[in-house]
């Protein structure tokens, strides 16, 4: 079972980690989403998002741009960071479940990278 956090801006991956005010957290087992929920942060901040990831015990984070300081912190916490990802949340989550998600992936509506 894996847990993934996707930094959101609407229904898309947030372009900036530090400007993220909402996150989607999904629990994935055997290629299917077993549980999903959205979490709205009290304010957008990198620290708040890192805290959420650590307390939720996520295995991976998907985001757009992220400062190196926070990237290194999450890596130190053994959380895989897929950064510079662009696209709709549903397609990104599907790519993660299929094992095809990579840092820098760009998804357009209805296409795979």
UniProtKB/TrEMBL annotation:
Pfam families: Nitro_FeMo-Co. InterPro entries: Di-Nase_FeMo-co_biosynth, DiNase_FeMo-co_biosyn_sf. Residues 10-97 form the Dinitrogenase iron-molybdenum cofactor biosynthesis domain. It comes from the Bacteria. This is Dinitrogenase iron-molybdenum cofactor biosynthesis domain-containing protein. It comes from Desulfovibrio psychrotolerans.
